[in-house]
Amino acid sequence: MNGLNEIVVIWSAECRRTLRSSRVVALLGLYSLFSLLIFLAAVFLRSLVQQLAEAGMVPPSEDLPLSVRGVYYLSLFFLPLYIALMGFDQVSGEVGPRSIRYLTVRSRRSSVLLGKLFAQTTVLLGLVFVLDLGLCVYAAVTTPGFGLASFMRYLVHFWVASTLFSFAFLSLTSLCSSLTTSPAVSLILNLTVLLSSLILWMTALAEKTHPLRSARYLSPLRYSLGLLSPETAQVATSAAAYVVFSVIFLGGALAALRTRDL
């Protein structure tokens, strides 16, 4: 088989296995509960924003409700942890017991990694699309003037932004899983990197003249808010940053898997 066929075969098999996994099903349930909490928060935020608007403290919005924008950012903040829990044993789960040898005998190592990565990407983005669709339906029902054009524009914008954001962290999970031989160590490494990323992002709270403040640009979380910015340049900068992070993480994962002893 050529490389593309190998990836497709592995992707198909991994999609079926992922959807049958009890852990993934439990995580899907957890994500669904989190989504429900998000929508309840949206209802509360909408009521609060309406009260502020009636008091003249917040200008009314006829486009995208502030509550929906806030809920979207909350869902993005939760995604890296969800991705880590879903895919921490992507490679390390098969390296430890040596079962990955059965795959690498018949397929390229890069095809194995990409097939597994794309399978988890497919499952995750399907779930994210449902959440984004729900947000747009909520906005259409509760916001006067939010017509079909706005519905489609924000649905596409939400989903593309979620795709760029998610794929960077999916690639990070692949890197952590490719560097380790134990799923437990892989999860710990992944969570450590996520916590480090959060700490780097929080350096933005330092004084403007503090030299450590520039460290925030090294955090993938730093660019999440720019994905929904009204300024095209800021959206493009954030999107480019996630493409760069994806290339770095995925390139590192491929290099690690190609050079290690399986």
From TrEMBL:
The protein's name: ABC transporter permease
Lineage: Bacteria, Pseudomonadati, Myxococcota, Myxococcia, Myxococcales
Transmembrane segments: 24-49, 69-88, 117-140, 152-172, 184-204, 239-257
Keywords on record: Membrane, Transmembrane, Transmembrane helix
A Gene Ontology term for the protein's cellular component: plasma membrane
Record-level Gene Ontology MF annotations: ABC-type transporter activity
Organism per entry: Melittangium boletus DSM 14713
Domain of life assignment: Bacteria
Pfam families: ABC2_membrane_2
PANTHER family reported for this sequence: ABC TRANSPORTER PERMEASE
